[in-house]
């Protein structure tokens, strides 16, 4: 049964106000005061004050550490992680992720798609003194993600079309065309790597993880180029692909043929 089959028939104004606040904070990189929230949503403080109070009480939003507004907490992410498919994916992946990190002395993280965003659902740290890792819960647009290239590359055709619709019309800067070209290359090679556009000296390497329904996640390492490193980027990429395949076997998945 779907309540949306015949359009929106029933309304819950209070719930809609709360969801509007949550969605606004999710789209905003900086904290927002209640006044700023009201302005952005075109509502009065009397309409949203109690709703913001309830959301804070339920742990969905919280005052920022500096006290300059509200931020979205990880509560919704934690609820999503409690779903059986995600929990099973993480449980299957962690042993292989630890194996990779221990062997290669590099961190690793597992990424899944949520709409047009990529979300980190698990990570393992490098056992060495130096390393770089990505926090669980971090999200970024699929079109700007090395992991996103891999998940798009190995997605079924209908899912690829859905992703393209979520991304929107091609950008004038050519990012979408580049993204699709990289995905085609990743599908042929079975892996994708690119220099991080956030941290110098880091190369992101991603390999697909499959379950019985197709590509389920991307296993990624932000490879740190250390002067005293004993492991090369090529070696790490090969071992990452090996461990991604091991996770796929645990999940009962099989790689998609190029």
UniProtKB/TrEMBL annotation:
<keyword id="KW-0805">Transcription regulation</keyword>
<dbReference type="GO" id="GO:0003677">
    <property type="term" value="F:DNA binding"/>
</dbReference>
<feature type="domain" description="HTH iclR-type">
    <location>
        <begin position="12"/>
        <end position="81"/>
    </location>
</feature>
<feature type="domain" description="IclR-ED">
    <location>
        <begin position="75"/>
        <end position="253"/>
    </location>
</feature>
<dbReference type="Pfam" id="PF09339">
    <property type="entry name" value="HTH_IclR"/>
</dbReference>
<protein>
    <submittedName>
        <fullName>IclR family transcriptional regulator</fullName>
    </submittedName>
</protein>
<dbReference type="GO" id="GO:0045892">
    <property type="term" value="P:negative regulation of DNA-templated transcription"/>
</dbReference>
<dbReference type="GO" id="GO:0003700">
    <property type="term" value="F:DNA-binding transcription factor activity"/>
</dbReference>
<dbReference type="InterPro" id="IPR036388">
    <property type="entry name" value="WH-like_DNA-bd_sf"/>
</dbReference>
<keyword id="KW-0804">Transcription</keyword>
<dbReference type="InterPro" id="IPR005471">
    <property type="entry name" value="Tscrpt_reg_IclR_N"/>
</dbReference>
<dbReference type="InterPro" id="IPR050707">
    <property type="entry name" value="HTH_MetabolicPath_Reg"/>
</dbReference>
<dbReference type="InterPro" id="IPR014757">
    <property type="entry name" value="Tscrpt_reg_IclR_C"/>
</dbReference>
<dbReference type="Pfam" id="PF01614">
    <property type="entry name" value="IclR_C"/>
</dbReference>
<keyword id="KW-0238">DNA-binding</keyword>
<dbReference type="InterPro" id="IPR036390">
    <property type="entry name" value="WH_DNA-bd_sf"/>
</dbReference>
<dbReference type="InterPro" id="IPR029016">
    <property type="entry name" value="GAF-like_dom_sf"/>
</dbReference>
């Amino acid at each position: 049964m779907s309540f949306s089959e015949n359009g929106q028939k029933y309304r819950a104004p209070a719930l809609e106000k709360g969801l509007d606040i949550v969605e606004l904070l999710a789209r905003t990189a900086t904290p927002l005061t209640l006044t700023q929230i009201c302005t952005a949503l075109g509502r009065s403080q009397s309409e949203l004050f109690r709703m913001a109070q309830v959301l804070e009480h339920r742990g969905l939003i919280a005052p920022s550490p500096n006290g300059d507004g509200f931020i979205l907490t990880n509560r919704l992410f934690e609820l999503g992680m409690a779903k059986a498919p995600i929990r099973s994916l993480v449980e299957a992946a962690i042993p292989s992720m630890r194996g990779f990190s221990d062997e290669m002395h590099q961190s690793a993280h597992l990424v899944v798609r949520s709409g047009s965003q990529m979300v980190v659902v698990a990570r393992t740290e490098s056992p060495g003194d130096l390393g770089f890792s990505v926090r669980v819960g971090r999200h970024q647009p699929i079109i700007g993600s090395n992991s996103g290239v891999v998940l798009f590359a190995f997605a079924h055709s209908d899912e690829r079309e859905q992703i393209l619709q979520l991304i929107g019309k091609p950008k004038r800067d050519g990012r979408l065309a580049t993204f699709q070209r990289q995905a085609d290359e990743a599908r042929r090679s079975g892996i994708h790597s690119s220099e991080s556009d956030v941290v110098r000296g880091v190369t992101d390497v991603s390999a697909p993880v499959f379950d019985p329904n197709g590509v389920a996640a991307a296993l990624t390492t932000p490879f740190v180029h250390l002067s005293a490193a004993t492991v090369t980027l090529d070696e790490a990429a090969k071992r990452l692909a090996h461990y991604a395949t091991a996770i796929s076997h645990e999940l009962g998945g099989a790689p998609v043929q190029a």
